[in-house]
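thread: overnight batch results

M.L. [08:02]
morning all. the overnight job finished for the chain we discussed friday. pasting input first so we're all looking at the same thing
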Amino acid sequence: MATHTATGASAALAGSLAPLLGKIPLFGAGPRQVSELPGGLTNRNYKVTTQNGCYVVRVSPREADLLSINRDNEYHNSVAAAAVGVGAPVLAYRPEDGVMVVGFIDGITFTDASFGVPGNLTRVAESCRRLHAGQRFVNDFNMFDIQRDYLSLVQARGYRLPDGYLDFAHQVQQIRQALAVRDEGTVPCNNDLLAGNFVDDGTQVWLIDYEYSGNNDACFELGNIWSECHLSHDQLEELVTAYYGRPLRNKVARAQLQGLMSKYGWTLWASIQQASSALDFDFWGWGMEKYESAVEMFRSPHFPQLLEIVELPD
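M.L. [08:03]
and the structure it wrote out:
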């Protein structure tokens, strides 16, 4: 049995996790300190410090299966992201316990305000390009399909659905058809790059957390960043320009439409989480913020313009 060099709440946490950590050879039998990391709306994340280094232990609840998360895919994709030097190294994986261990990246975790720091959008674009140029992931991610599956689950189980949610099915089909006109295929994407999944070590920006990863349209990655990190339109243009190396109106429109689909789809994610998650978090309020933003875009006079612009050549 390991000893724990921690006091108070930290000691209690280390003690409660001892049986689980004891199954992982990486941690051996020496002293360890454990602290819970903030953030994360699906998993519990812990920083474990031993005499050999610092690690992050991700413990996933079984209810996450409702969210179309495949932990084996997450593991393989995390390994691929680490191989191109943009994801944390993967050090252990115990699917039977819902546990993955990755290296701890010593750096500053982004907030939405971080994207306003000069140069950061370019650095973020560089990290995304690096990930997207790497080995293809073992699965695909398509928000149109994910949204459809989430909706089926919400309806089948009687979970809460925002008022008027189904009224936008036609607009969703319009987006899908417009994006298909200049479809350039898919690349390995993280698909969940909210601010807390960027870590700046002073040299580069790392992209962490690959539970929703899969091969996807590169503009979904950019549009989802725009949505999740509350970027302005000017910041989105800067991000897209940095990613592609030149201003492209159609790619900005594509990222906006993909960002709109992310808002619309993640709304249902929030409904499922509100009904099934044990975490103490206002998932419904979080989801309604996205839904209201999506409704505003669907009803905007700019929506038809985006559908036109996205079909234009570069």
